[in-house]
Structure formats: C-alpha cells, structure tokens
Amino acid sequence: MKRLVNLLIKGIGTSLVTFTILGIVWDIKNGGNYIMNNWSYTKMVVAAIIVGIGFAVPALIYYNPNIPSCMKVLFHMGLGCTILLITSFIVGWIPMSLGLKECVFTVMVELLISFILWLCFTLYYKRVAKRMNEQIKNMKSKE
Length: 143
Fold this sequence. Notes:
Helix content: over 70%
Shape: elongated
C-alpha cells in the first residue's frame, strides 16, 4: 500500500506539474488569449490527475522480479500512454478542429514528453541503485 501511495503522489504530481508547464507554454503561444469555458479547466485538471494515476498504478509492475524488464516497460508505458491519449481526446488536448497534421503532431509531442519523463525517472532510480550498491560494497569491505 505504501508503494502505491508513493507512486500515486509521484505520478499525479508529475502530471500536474507537466500540465501547468504546458499550459503556460500554450498561453504564451496564443499571446495570452487562453480562454476556457464550460468547466474546461476543471475537466483538464481532473484529466491530468487521471493521467498521473494511469502512469503511476502500472508502475507497480517494476516491483515484480519475475517479469523481464522490457515487458515491464512495455506494460507500464503502453497502459500509461493509452490512458493519456484517450484522456487527451476526451478533454480536448488533441486539437481535432485543427486537422490531422496538428493532431498527429500533438500526439507525437505527448508521447515524446511521456518517454522523456520515463527516461528521467529511470536514470534517477538507476543512479540511486548504483549509490546504494556502492554503500553496501563499502560496508562489506569494512567488515
């Protein structure tokens, strides 16, 4: 349960920070004319939370030592990206009214951001594991 809560905090937090940063970028791109109505902002914040959960919960698979790493990544990112794309279509993050080219571009950017965030977390945890292994090695050598 502690692992799940920890992953949810990280997933939802990362999703909300990413949503906020991209909102600022979109606002700048549109010259400060980022207008929403019909609860659009609230729907998007809830969607960002759902996306965070959608990436956090499948990350529990990394704690299973019996599954190959490539399958873990495929499951985690496959499920997370699927939830991201479905949610994006529902709340309007993918601009259907701007045509196919803009939609494909937006999907590619969303997937790229997802994989960059995954890579950052992966590199961070590999570095933590390396430090822990070095500390264990140093403790054993002192005995």
